[in-house]
Sequence to fold (222 residues):
Amino acid sequence: QKEVEQDPGPLSVPEGAIVSLNCTYSNSAFQYFMWYRQYSRKGPELLMYTYSSGNKEDGRFTAQVDKSSKYISLFIRDSQPSDSATYLCAMSLYNFNKFYFGSGTKLNVKP
Amino acid sequence: DVKVTQSSRYLVKRTGEKVFLECVQDMDHENMFWYRQDPGLGLRLIYFSYDVKMKEKGDIPEGYSVSREKKERFSLILESASTNQTSMYLCASSAPGGGYTFGSGTRLTVV
Fold:
């Protein structure tokens, strides 16, 4: 079983839709949870990160962590064509030195 | 902004060649990492380093070695390139307690 599971998609939505991206994980010791966005032919860029459980909001993006269910989500409100990318979740133990990545969900936002 | 620079965007090498992939970061980060990214498999950690001259094996180190002679530079070496090493290679760096900053990646094709 992989440490981190993520539906590869692709997920196709119309512009303006609310997008929900999700990951599940098996290791209850994970403390730090991150979302990266990767455009085609580019390296991933850090979008958001949270520590332990709870929600974090940044503009149109909300990251949610449910440690009891071992489930994390990224919500994108009012999605734009520029949000079309692959979204990777990542998580880390207490020491933050090594990350475990999901395989990424490809999102396509249609104008 | 932290910059992680990978020396080549695209490389084509022959089977059996020794291949060097270079990565330089400009923010004095202690931690540096090499990943490969393949469709359906996500990011897989090859090697990482917490300090100069230190290295640790990741999940898939076979066929690879690394060198970190200076803090800002982390090199990945394919001792004898094989076709199954055709992949996107991503370098990343981080400070303790911080998320990764990735380079733009090197797409390596071994023929």
About this structure: The mean pLDDT of chain A is 91. The first strand of chain A starts at residue 4 and ends at 6.
